[in-house]
């Protein structure tokens, strides 16, 4: 009997277990937030619509959130000026409305939620843990995940780092390019080149 294939795989040859990683879709990274990305609110709405229409493609849906308590020099507190490379304005502060999932995702009901960066800078979702201290790697391993689709904010930073870490762990990774947005066009282009070079597939969700 041939091996089964999850509906999201499309390979027809090998068993595939796919997760959707929804990275840092939080008001703090959207227009009006502490560290906004242009188009952030639109990305949140498109992700919500995509998940509603495509939840059955995925064995697992996992969200990540910046959840900073005191991340040290990651925050440039006044009078220090952020360089927007290693230091940033305070954002994603644990327990504040800005750090919660975007309201557009209120009906998402993820299978797992990972928070990262409490006391250190953390860009990749793989640096976070859920409320019982499971890392993202353990969550995916326990669900026998082989493939991930990555969406969220910002493409040039946390989406990039999460995608590259997934590849380093031996997972196949796709970035759904219409469900993310970069800090700037130039940084977005650089991130896409880095992710593609690392082995990621970049594709709009409409092409799946």
TrEMBL record:
Pathway: Cofactor biosynthesis; nicotinate biosynthesis; nicotinate from nicotinamide: step 1/1. Belongs to the isochorismatase family. It comes from the Bacteria. Keywords: Hydrolase, Metal-binding, Pyridine nucleotide biosynthesis. This is nicotinamidase. GO terms for biological process: pyridine nucleotide biosynthetic process. Pfam families: Isochorismatase (PF00857). GO terms for molecular function: metal ion binding; nicotinamidase activity. It comes from Pengzhenrongella frigida. Its EC number is 3.5.1.19. The keyword Hydrolase applies. The keyword Nucleotide-binding does not apply. Gene3D superfamilies: Isochorismatase-like.
């Amino acid at each position: 009997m041939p091996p089964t294939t999850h509906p999201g795989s499309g390979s027809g040859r090998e068993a595939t277990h796919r997760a959707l990683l929804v990275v840092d879709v939080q008001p703090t990274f959207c227009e009006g937030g502490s560290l906004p990305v242009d188009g952030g609110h639109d990305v949140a709405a498109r992700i919500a619509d995509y998940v509603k229409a495509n939840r059955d493609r995925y064995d697992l849906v996992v969200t990540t959130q910046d959840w900073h308590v005191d991340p040290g020099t990651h925050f440039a507190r006044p009078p220090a000026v952020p360089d927007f490379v290693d230091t940033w304005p305070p954002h994603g502060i644990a327990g504040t409305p800005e750090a919660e999932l975007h309201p557009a995702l209120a009906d998402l009901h993820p299978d797992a939620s990972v928070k990262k960066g409490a006391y250190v800078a953390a860009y990749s979702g793989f640096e976070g843990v859920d409320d019982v201290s499971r890392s993202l790697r353990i969550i995916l391993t326990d669900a026998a995940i082989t493939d991930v689709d990555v969406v969220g904010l910002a493409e040039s930073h946390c989406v990039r780092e999460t995608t590259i870490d997934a590849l380093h762990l031996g997972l196949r990774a796709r970035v759904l390019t219409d469900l993310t947005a970069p800090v700037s066009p130039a940084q977005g282009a650089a991130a896409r080149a880095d992710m593609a070079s690392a082995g990621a597939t970049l594709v709009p969700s409409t092409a799946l």
